[in-house]
Amino acid sequence: MKKYQLCAIGNALVDMEFKVEESFLNACEIDKGVMTLVEEQRQDELVAALEGHPGKWACGGSAANTVIAAAQFGADCFYSCKLAADETGDFYLRDMREAGVASNADNGRGPGKTGKCLVMVTPDAERTMNTYLGISESFSVAELDAEVIAASEYLYIEGYLVTSPTGRAAAIEAKRLAEAAGVKTALTFSDPAMVQFFKDGLTEMVGTGVDMLFCNEAEALAWTGCATLEEAVSALRQIAKNFAITLGSKGALLFDGETLHKIAPHTITAVDSNGAGDMFAGAFLFSLSRGDSFPEAGRLASLSSAKVVQSFGPRLLKEQHAELLAEVFAGQPTAANVI
After folding, report:
1. What are the boundaries of each domain within the chain?
2. What is the pTM of this model?
3. Which ranges constitute the DSSP H helices of 32-157?
4. Does the structural domain 4-338 have CATH classification 3.60.15.10?
């Protein structure tokens, strides 16, 4: 048995999440529903403008949310990232340790500023992100640990790394190390904007293909250039042995290498969509790592992501993960249908 079920690489960003009205986005000329890279000054101006709005801080970044979800379910996890020796980095590392995730940052941090992600959630539950990468922009092969990667069942790569030349190179090298060690590789496209503006870089990261791909419907259509989801499903088989396509209120589609499974949605009132896809991937990989089938993993992932969007913030309380496991694996009828 491997030491780690999941080793992830990605940006280390302190999530600063606020509830806002859509008028705030319009007044500040912020593109809604996507992640936009900004300079620190711009981010500081927006944070100042949000004084008095309900807010919440947490260690984050897409892959960080995923690996924390897997750890809270019970997996042994490791996160490779880049933090600065500043107060924001102190907060991040403390929050990561409390979540039960080991990190290369435990061995020291350098000068600079830890990255921050301003997450603005509108009443329709849509999340809009303005990100200052800080020291995460220089995440590189120096932050990789070949021994940790080799000791893991899965390597999980965050698509957002494509925006940085050194981050993209690190993702490519991490994938090479994983494949050489017989470790399964998983990649998330992360955001439709990554596919739209950085497809060439993502193509480099995908290389000859991955074992597991995570994306949503918009990303699947944008990547493949297909007009329908059915066509996109067929095209994705060319780059991924297995994949999961999240469909929001329509559930999810899973491909296990042979069979396509439809995962039914859950009827909920969404409060905050931030972290839904990250939670789906974390729950799904945790479930697979302990030997569950794709439909079983999909049931856990679907219910977990539905649960996380019902509250403010990208993660759940630790005790909620145990409750989800009990609910999914206590004999309820399956929510998966083979197509």
Report:
1. 4-338
2. 0.91
3. 40-49, 62-73, 87-98, 146-150
4. no
